Amino acid sequence: MFLECPADAHGITEESVAWMDALILRPAVAQPEEGETQTVETLIKCIVVASGNDASVAMAEHIAGTEGEFVKMMNERAEGLGMSNTHFEDCCGLTESLSHVTTARDIAVMSRELIVKYPQIHNYSTIWMENITHVTKQGTTEFGLANTNKLLKMATNFQVTGLKTGSTSLAKYCLSATAEKDGVRLIASIMAAPDYKARFADAQTLLNYGYANCRLYEDTQMPQLPLMPVSDGVESQVPLQYGGGFSYLSLNGEDFQAIEKKLMVPENIKAPVEPGEKVGVLRYELGGKVLGEVEIFTKGSVKKAGYKEYLRKTAAAWLMQGGRKKSNVPAAE
Prior knowledge:
By secondary structure, this protein is of the alpha+beta class.
């Protein structure tokens, strides 16, 4: 399956895990030695680039105390994301059990959550090769990491941005592939491919299909908003502002030239007015179908007029009316 990407992980915050936190490792693809110390960032590279299962366990223990407690957090987060057909039994996927399961959809949902909330993951998932340094009592040595995602080096008409491979004898060869082209980001989720080459070929086929059928509309010329009339206020108008921009992903090749924009705001609003009050929407329609809306808010405040303000306005209006009458008096001959 493929999934389009639109941006806090449960239980894990920037305060609880820092990039330069030092972890003391115990032995097991990154090949750490017992008692070795590495940073969180180095272990992220080991996990993302080289599928370091030992690094995954070290991170799980650092975050939750034990791998078992971390797996509980994983399953809670999966439930919160709506991954209804997923159940984790370890932190790296190696356990071959009929109850250790997931689906292509759930992998895509999990991948989307990762890259939207933590886009810096692409800084690591696109590393092709890199050396890490082991520092132990025996001295310093280097160990090379090589990315298991060979899609990164395959000829494509889109930019490959990650994400993660996985395989066991029971699950076969799997891949969550992420890509970007013309502002559209897609995820291809491959499960149970017969060999490691097939998962990359299948991902490329899915992503080619996605980019052949998906087009992105972004409104770069939103209508200028009028001043909103205010009744019973010390000021007669208040400026408006949009709550954000608008984009729409087409899956059926629609004609974006036919998109209609409808400004839906009242004729006036009553004082008092506070900044940030919602007053309407800009609606986007195509062929009678509502594509979406952008909310419109007040950009300033207007206090409710009191007795003095009404008196002042009445006097000003009377003086203005008197001025008009004088201007209409014909000059003496």
